Amino acid sequence: MNFSYTILIPLIPLAVFLLLGIFNQKIKPAVSGYIGVFGLLASAIISFYAAYQYFFVSGKADGVYQTFVDKTVWMNFTETLHIDMGVLIDPISIMMLIVVSVVSLMVHIYSRGYMKGDDGYTRFFAFLSLFSFSMYGLVLATNLFQIYIFWELVGVSSYLLIGYYYTKPSAVAAAKKAFIVTRFADLGFLIGILIIGYYTGTFDFETLNNPEGSAILNWASTSFMGLSVITWALILIFIGGAGKSAMLPFHIWLPDAMEGPTPVSALIHAATMVVAGIYLVARLFPMFYFVEHGFALNIVAYVGAISSLFAAIIAITQTDIKRVLAFSTMSQLGYMMLALGVSGYDGHEGVGYMASMFHLFTHAMFKALLFLGAGSVIHAIHSNYLKDMGGLRKYMPITNVTFLIAALAIAGMPPFAGFWSKDEILVAAFEHNKLIYYIGVLVAGLTAFYMFRIYFGIFWGKDREYEHTPKESPLSMTFPLMVLALLSIVGGFIPFSEFITPDKAGFEAHLNYPLAAIAVGVGLTGIILAWVFYKKENDLADKFANAFGIFYKWAFHKFYFDELYLFITKKILFKRVSAPIAWFDKKVVDATMEGIGNKTVLTSEKIKGMQSGKVQDYAFSFIAGVVVLAIVFIYIWTN
Amino acid sequence: MNIDSFLLMRHEILLLAIVLLLIVAEIFINQNKKGSIVHLAIFLFGIHTIVGFFAIDESSLFGGMFRTNGLIHFFKNILNIGVLVLLLQSADWLQEKIVQHNRGTEFFILMFSSLLGMYFMISSGDFLMFYLGLELSTLPVAALAAFETTKRISSESGIKLILSAALASGVSLFGISLLYATTGSIYFNDIIEVITSTNLSILGLVLFFAGLAFKISLVPFHFWTADVYEGAPISIASYLSVISKGAAVFILMILLFTVLKPLMHIWENMVYIIAIATMFIGNLFALRQQNMKRFLAFSSIAQAGFILLGIIEGNQLGVTTVVYFVLIYVFSNLAAFGVVQAISLQTGKENMNDYEGLYRTNPKLSLVMMLALFSLAGIPPVAGFFGKFFLFTAAASKGYYLLVFLAVVNVTISLYYYLLVIRAMFLRQSDHAIPFFKNKLYMRLGLIITVLGILILGLYSPLYDYIFELSSNFN
Model confidence over B223-271: pLDDT tens digits? Predict the structure, then answer.
């Protein structure tokens, strides 16, 4: 089997980016849209072909999916330690290729309608292509350093796209916030990489992940503060992943990132970039699992569970529909993390890992659909806020139906995609950690509730006073909605456990009926509550909010996390640490430097006379120079 | 002596043939098409440059007076590329100002003779050949400096150069004779065996060193530089600062590293002192210059100071870093001089404040200049950064940390004045900005080659390893 051609998948969007970037002014907007869409279509076709080849033709040997690597050495450090560039094909990278291709293609098509008439149309498609290139590169990375390079690249493209409306101060601030917060977490990632490189002598995923390899077997050889250094490295790497995947306490950038255009939110902040953290942990899963008996993996599980619950509670109280979806994304990402955290390795034990990837896949479809649906609504009425919406089902039938399908999917109602993947996650949690299982069930109920809260809020209830009658979006926007809706219905029937498991051998998964019944029951309760509260306009919701009083206020203000960060940075860091340093810099360092600078110019002025223009003088200094040198080296500086 | 041994002198013979051919050609050239001599000369020299790339054996001729090896061959090619670029950049000036007075051939003959002298100088195997080469390389340049006979300043520059050069070459010859007196031979291979550190040999070393230091314009032998550059035609200033300096650096390094190696404990201290003096004096003077040619003169003095950091290493690493730096310096400095030349030719303006607002009117030219100055200043990822970085590594590997520190201080000073030019071009507005003009083909070609050189050497460079291998016999 040879999958070297997959290198084309990232290279095509790169070419599109360069083309659109260089000839920005010379290409007509309509043409640039087509270039973007067709470039991505080509990548998607290759991805699907590769997936077909891998899963159904040549990927398996002795009943186990093989890992295919093609790479070249890019930079040498020592004999064994070098940075390579290449492609790595295994079940999860193929799965991610499909996710990125489908969502990115749909978003490209959708954007042709959504961004129509925008000034930076070509720039927008150039950035989308840059993002697709980086994301593909991240997915296909063969080693920690390569993934880090593309990791930063997706960060940059995300920055560019969040700040796309760069004349809006809030967008610029949000872009900066996202970049700085994730950069901060990436510092942990980088240190983790360096530790791994130093102690194991390799960056290669294949070598690192080998359960019989030295990297895993020798974890106990060096320890630091009671833990193996490798565990420390994994925790640091997980911090990087937590930054990208908006886990507590690095989540604060995600809601603000909604300042970007809605298609961007769908692509980057729902379906692809934010799952990079999950993908990273899954990529290193054997290390997380075996090193120090899964100590780091436990941290992953708890951080995931807590983030999931935390975000779901906040989501209930938000009034901006994109922010609700942002917190919902964070909550679902937490779900995936906790599923990885409770997973085993061999055979059926690996159900958590499988479920996590399964949920990543289905979530990408229905969450992208939710965002694009929300975008369609925002496009029609030019507002993000629930208070401006209501009764839209009559005007926007396609958006209404597709949004409902996505909401049912995320609420875990059978037979929609979310039901199947969520059920597997709960099974895994139930088998390994009861506490996490209860959190999971609670979150499932909350999810159904907040999702139907906004569904009823947008599409049911009374009409608002619209400036002009809202109308359904054009086909370029509704087509992706329909495609994604279809995938949200059938996506759950893919037998994931045959394709993607930690040991790559596959197993047969069965529905656990009692657990499924509980989950569906909880989900239904959430939906019914939402129906009671929000289907018709009434003051029940406000009464409840008042009853919870202070707690509601906390959740509404996102538990004051932003304020906490501001307090730490502004009051403590800036005032107590930065200000004195700035003073020192200005009064001592700068002053000294300026003094030296002025002295230099003065000296230069003073010695001007040496250059008299007379050849006699020049000859004199020539001879003088010779004589002085001769005297110095014959009589004085002799050694 | 058979034809094979003559082929070892391929560079020299070919260039001589071109010189003779040009003399003959002048007779036959149509008086209505005087300009064709320029095309012919550039064409011939282009072929000569290309032929130069064919590999050459390592050997010596005339009982060891002439020798060649991979490194020498490589360096001759660097000189060739430099001269070719320089000719391309001067073509328009020649067409407009020189050829009309039937002096085109003269120009080429003088320049090629000087280059021939350099070939012999860097290929020399004894002091006699060295001295002949040195003289042959210097004298024609003095004539070239005074080439614009209608300008007083040009004649002055020629006179200053010839007087200073005569003094320097006399001193150098005296030094050589002292070395001969102490060792009894003028052959490099013999001298290595017998030379020891005595008062007489040290005096010889100092005098000999001063002669070459004059050509490289090291402090305190540098005073002629600014005056001559300012007065001479720009192509000649460029030639002096790039080609002539490069060749002199190379042969100085070769001689110090081989023949005078037994005196290394003396000359490394000498190089140490002179490096510091040269960097500081060059930079401090460059700070205040307004005339672009004087500015580049002092900048090139400072650059010579940096080169000494590689020389002080004394081994293979030193050779590699110096040759690599010279290669980058050739491209960077030629790019800077090329822009000055283009502007001077179109408008006659040579002052820094004339460059104000240049970016708005001539963006491409400003970008070339910016790239050149960034490279000279050593800003990554432009080639100059790597050149300087390797030189500093070489000095640091010998433990000269103080010297490296002082060099870094000087890099900072130099950054200031290079940025002055960039500020004038990009940030300053001016009502008298030089209007837009289009360069002719030759000039454009000349600038494009330099830009490619700067970029390619900066971004992708297995060349460093190649040079390192070439200089393996300096271990």
Answer: 999 899 999 999 999 999 999 999 999 999 999 999 999 889 889 999 9
Q: Residue B368 CB: number of other CB atoms within 10 A?
A: 21
Tokens 């090193």 map to which residue? A291
Classify the C-alpha dihedral A288-A289-A290-A295 as positive or negative: positive
Q: CB–CB of B203 and A634 under 8 A?
A: yes
Question: Which residue of A604, A608, A639 to mutate against B (max B Cβ within 10 Å)?
Answer: A604
Which of B171, B203, B284 is facing A604, going by the closest CB pair?
B284
A365-391 burial, b for 16+ CB within 10 Å, e for fewer?
bbbbbbbbbbbbbbbbbeebebebbbe
Cβ pairs bridging A and B (under 8 Å):
79
Identify residue B166 by its one-letter amino acid code. A
Q: Is the pTM of this model over 0.90?
A: no
Helix runs in B195-290, H state only: 199-216, 224-231, 234-239, 245-257, 264-286
Q: What b/e readout covers A194-207, taking b as 16+ CB neighbours within 10 angstroms?
A: ebbbebbbbbbbeb
- Report residues of chain A scoring pLDDT below 70: 1, 536-538, 540-541, 639
**Considering only CB atoms, which chain B residues are within 8 Å of A633?**
202, 206, 266, 269-270
Helix/strand/coil for A105 = helix
- Cβ neighbors of B413 (< 8 A, separation 6 or more) are A600, B283, B284, B287
Return the closest-CA partner of residue B159 out of B171, B170, B143: B143
What are phi and psi for residue A624, nearest 5 degrees?
-60, -40
Beta-carbon count within 10 A of A435 CB: 11
Distances (CA, A) of B321 to A200, B371, B471: 35, 21, 10
All residues at 6 or more sequence positions from A333 whose CB lies less than 8 Å from its CB, including other chains: A245, A246, A247, A274, A275, A277, A278, A304, A307, A308
Establish whether this prediction's ipTM goes over 0.90. no
Chain B positions touching A623 (Cβ under 8 A) are 167, 171
- Over the Cα atoms of chain B, what is R_g? 21
Q: By the CB < 8 Å criterion, does B159 face chain A?
A: yes
- Whether residue A611 and residue B284 make contact (CB cut-off 8 A), yes or no, is no
Tokens matching residue B15? 């260039």
Q: How far apart are CA B9 and CA B13, in angstroms?
A: 6
In sequence order, which residues have a C-beta less than 8 Å from that of residue A592 and are 6 or more positions away? none
DSSP B351: B
A608 in contact with chain B, both atoms CB, cutoff 8 A: yes
- For the cut 70, the answer to whether the pLDDT of residue B171 exceeds it is yes
* Measured distance CA(B82)–CA(A72) in Å, rounded: 36
**What are the helix (H) ranges across B312-462?**
316-347, 358-361, 363-377, 383-397, 401-426, 441-459
B285, A634: Cβ pair inside 8 Å?
A: no
Is the CB of residue A416 less than 8 Å from the CB of residue A488? yes
Give the C-alpha separation, A375 to B67, whole Å: 77
Domain residues of chain B, as ranges?
3-474
Counting DSSP H helices and E strands in chain B, the numbers are 21, 2
Cα atoms in the Cβ-side hemisphere of radius 13 Å centred on A33: 19
Chain A residues inside the 8 Å CB shell of B163: 615, 619
Phi, psi of A60 (to 5 degrees): -100, 140
